Amino acid sequence: MIAVSTTSRDSIRMLARPLVVSFCVCAAIFFLDRSSGPLVIRSVGEFLGYLWFAVTLSVGVAFVFWGCVRGGVLGFVGAVAYPAVLFVIILIELNATWPMTRKPSEAFVAALPLITGVGLYLAHRLGYAAGIGVGVACAGCAAAVFALVEAGLSAPSALSFGGVAAAVAYLATPARRGTPLAHWRTQPIRARLTNTAEPFEPPVASTVASAELPDPLGRFVSRIVYWARLLPSERRQVAAELVAHCVDGLASGWSADDVVRSFGDPRVAARLIRRAKRRCRGLYWHAWVWSLRAVGACLALAVGIYLAQGIRFWTAVPSVDVDYLAKLQSVAEARASGEPAYSDWLELWHGLPNASAIAITDTRAGDPSARDGLTLADLDYSDQRPEAQSAVRAARPWLDEVRALASTGRGFAWPHGLTQLDQPEAFFAMREARDPEYERPSAESLEAEGRTADGDVFESALTGVRLPYLGFHRATAGWLARDAYLAIEEGDGQRVAESVEAILVVGSHAGEFPTLYNGSVQLSMHRVALRVVLDALAADPHAFDLTQLRRLAHVVAPLPTEISRWTLGRRYMVLDAIQRTFSDDGSGDGVLAPDGLRWLSGSNRTYVPDFIGEPGPIVKAVGPVTMSLVASRRETTELSERFFDALDEDQPAWDFFKTEDIHGDWWETRHPVLSAILPFMGRMRSESLAVARDRDAVLLAIALHAHYVTTGEWPRDAADVVPRYLPEWPRYAVMGTPFRYALKSAGPVVYLDGPDRDDDGGEWPAKLRKGTSEWSRFVAPLDWSTRGWWYDQDRRDGDHILWRPGAIDPPASDTPDFND
Amino acid sequence: MKIERELMRGAGPTAVLAVLASGERYGYELVEHLDRRSDGALAMGQSTLYPMLYNLEAKGLIKGRDREAPNGRRRRYYHLTGKGERKLERDKQSWSALAGAFAKLGVLPASTLEEGTA
What we know:
Chain A is mostly helical. Chain A is built from 35 helices and 7 strands. Chain A has a 3-stranded antiparallel β-sheet with strand order 3-4-6. In chain A, a hairpin with a 4-residue loop joins strand 1 (731-732) and strand 2 (737-738). Chain A is elongated, with a radius of gyration of 39 Å. Chain B is globular and about 50 Å long.
């Protein structure tokens, strides 16, 4: 007989293994559910989280029942704890005003098993002071994990913490034998929950001992009962009955051996007794067993499906049949007129002045160090520092060459390549000439970046296309804009006009290749050019003569603003990724291939946990699951085609997303290729609308100037300029209202309706303080997104002034407040 | 003479029910009674008896209860339930019909047929 005492050590021991399981499961869920993990694994983690939640919920409900019915007063108190915790969690999830983010609530859910364990423990092991202490410690551990994860502890660290804590709990409980968990086979969960277990006193041994049977018979009975693996109450009853049988046999004059012999095979008896006793058990027990069997069957089914899907997944091979880069290149070449000029531009960029000569101090960020570079966003008419003007004057010979090359009308026609090596030789020569420290890329350096070798299909993916010229285009446009502003100061309208035209040409070069990157650069350059024209017209009504005004109008009027001009590249990138990610069954359909999963995991670092590095066994193991979750090749292709068709028809991307119900983790799981590549286009569309607005403002300002130059007076109304100087009066596409024009004593004003959506006579809103978020919203481009919420939120009086002579709008930085 | 196992599997429960119809008994008594009344033909090993009792109990045909035996020891006595009595009646009719059929076939003596139809 095993002697076991009901010490606190046993109590701790009782909870040690559930602690191990709880910590491991919680840590695993934290690990899998962290946002830094790959999406597919996060989905699996989320599923496991829900599964775990369901299990704990079931346990909790069962506990509530048994706690109320069998657990006594304190059991009832413990039973209340679980629904109370659940209630809090539901409150957190449902109450949008709850001051907690979703993440803490998820951590709380994940910690639920531990809290449930505390409740179960308190209910089941009432009366043991040490048990309550362990319960409190358990809750403390749950709170600690919760706090650590919320404090920003990384997933691996949380995992380590869980493991260490579990190991400590395990090692701190040395009473290995004789604990209830050591007897799990003979004292099942049901007996524990119903308080019918005899955790510290094996029943058979005591029954046999009290009957004082001869040793062979005692062992015989004990074996049968042990092998029968019955519930404690059953064991006690069967043992008593067999002991009585043996006693009667001995009383009849049989020897112990005769009794044993007449009984038959003890293993057969144990098996038959077990079978018969199981039939005697109640509905609850049978429901539990069948539930377990159902779970087992589901698991077996899941394994079968996994293996079947695994065969499909591991044998899937993508095939690259279409050269989308060549298609895009042909589109770009068709847009480039005349002889390709890229080599001449490369030659010219040998002399591109160093932008550090006119470095801007980033006072906005509070950084006193000079930024090494000139971005288009830095351009400001008010910035006429002597050192900047000197640098621009020094660069003027080079800028004259730029303007001359831009005026040839030749297209850029850059030969695009997919790796750093696939660039024109002249480009490397230019880089080396400009920067002595520049290192020409080599096969070895590319390999170090993981972009070569093993010949996988993603080495030549279109998403890797290189656009090394865009930075030089930006820098060139920046210098041209600087020179244009200096020309405005000097009253040199001809140079202003030539600079503006050159900026527009450089921008169109950048936008030849039909990708969104190129389009974004072109639009931003065009906005700079248009802003220069508006500022020049505002600074001096006589800045341009009629010929220059006409030429500027003809250059500005056809500026493209529709983003469909650049969506083709992204469409091809998606289609190219699809053909490299999915297998092809010959009819346009296929499944996710291992190479595709590797690319999805490797192309975007956010899809892979940092410590995994290259996609490892976890990613590979979940491959069949991922393949089952991911949409097929056909579905992905059709959805992407619908998306780009909608964009080409000028349907806003978010309207399409809303129509297609494209949002949330499930959509990202189902369409990983699209979620990684599909553009949301918000900024792009805002930029295009802003360019269209500024273009129309420039054309209107030119028309007003033309009237002024011709007659010596500003137009009184639209009739004075339409149709003589302007074919039609422009309208603002976002709000659908016409541009406003007012002739005041100080001069004309061109403006748009402000937040209150009515004409306030061309005045900025009162008390609009520069630098505030209100100012940013108001003066920033009135893009599409503002229509939805800002105009509904802010109804103040005032207009958005686009242009007025004698003032630079938006107001200069030295004007802190308006009408304040 | 011992009954073959397959035959005993069908006859055993009915025999136990029949013995218990005369009054409640505990396991060892049942073994002894069956052995004695059937001249050993229906003697069954204890390894078979107790699972059989538990099966009958699971089906609700018999019910066991612990009480003190005349010798002062505690024993688990089994008695027929109402359901068990009805089952025993049905079994008797089945066995009678079977015995009659066997008599007509000459497997059993003709006296058996008369007893079965009486």
